Amino acid sequence: MLGDYIPASPPAYSAFYSNSFEGQGHHGGSAILVRRDIPCTGLELDTPLQAVAVKVFMDRPYTVCSLYLPPSVTVERGDLNHLVRDLPSPFILLGDFNGRHPLWGDSSVNPRGVLFASFIEDEGLGVLNTGDVTHFNSPTGTFTAIDISLCSPSALLDFTWRVLPDLYGSDHFPILLEGNRYEPQSRLPRWKFEKADWQFFGELTSSVSSVADFCSSDEAVTYFTDMLHSAALNSIPRTSGYFPKRPVPWWSPVCTTAVAIVGTQLF
Q1: How open is the CA angle 130-136-138, to the nearest 5 degrees?
Q2: InterPro entries under this entry (predicted)?
Q3: Same domain for 133 and 240?
Q4: Which of 64, 82, 175, 178 is the most exposed place for a label (fewest CB within 10 A)?
Q5: Is the pLDDT of residue 23 over 60?
Q6: What is the mean pLDDT of residues 243-257?
Q7: Looking at the predicted structure, is the pLDDT value of residue 192 above 60?
Q8: Across 79-87, average pLDDT
Q9: 157 and 49 both lie in a single domain
């Protein structure tokens, strides 16, 4: 990280560091610490940027990339494009970018902020920032938002982003990303009639009582309904009632209608 010096990782954490390149204005570099009870693996990045990436395995695998862009270094747009396209999805790209733009909550704009706003739009990335400031400049007493948290579109709803209120001796506020627990969306189970055991269904419904055996028509209807339902449960499989995949964040009823319209046009 600091030249050829690699600090020891804290106890109970695995440490991953960015590569250092001589003569390219590299400062402290980037690092990622992962608690040892969380399965993870480091990823090789082909980039001149001060970036490091790790794949962590939680409820699903995520690529986490830490990036530091010093204000004195010229950032090439091509290097940013290559870095993002080198990250397996879903990914989170976090770091001190030293870019200012209202897109992630800053009150001002600088050239690097314009570059990143265009980069985010062209790559279709999600911005996790909520608009809070992330940095305090003690000489001027001003606050800025130069720390950006980006992600691939499929991860946009997976995390809640917030800034902690204490600087803890730094000039950057700690940023906390909390995973949103995914609750599978349910729907009514569907009967799989194509896989039904109709012979068994017939056996279960072959012995029925006469209507005359019941005191009222309501009692007879209840009996026949329960009998048919019980026979179906024992002879016709059903779907689970849950969506097989996590819904994508951009899907809406308008998309469902559009797909249905396209389907009717194909015939």
Answers
A1: 170
A2: Endo/exonu/phosph_ase_sf, Endo/exonuclease/phosphatase
A3: no
A4: 178
A5: no
A6: 72
A7: yes
A8: 96
A9: yes
Lowest mean pLDDT: which of 131-135, 141-145, 213-217? 213-217
Vertex 151: Cα angle to 74 and 100 (nearest 5): 40
54 in Cβ contact with 16 (< 8 Å): yes
Same-domain status, 27 and 107: yes
42/142 same-domain check: yes
Q: Are 99 and 115 in contact (CB under 8 A)?
A: yes
Q: Which of 123, 249, 21 is nearest to 115 (CA)?
A: 123
| Same domain (yes/no): 145, 195 | no
Chain position carrying tokens 């995949």: 245
Split at pLDDT 50, 70, 90, the class of 1 is very low
Range of 65's domain?
13-179
Query: Does position 242 have pLDDT exceeding 90, yes or no?
Result: no
Domain count of the chain?
2
Are 139 and 235 members of one domain?
no
> Could you tell me if 162 and 229 lie in one domain?
no
CA distance 102 to 104: 5
Sorted by sequence, the CB contacts under 8 Å of residue 130 that are 6+ apart come out as 105, 161, 162
Count, residues in the chain: 267
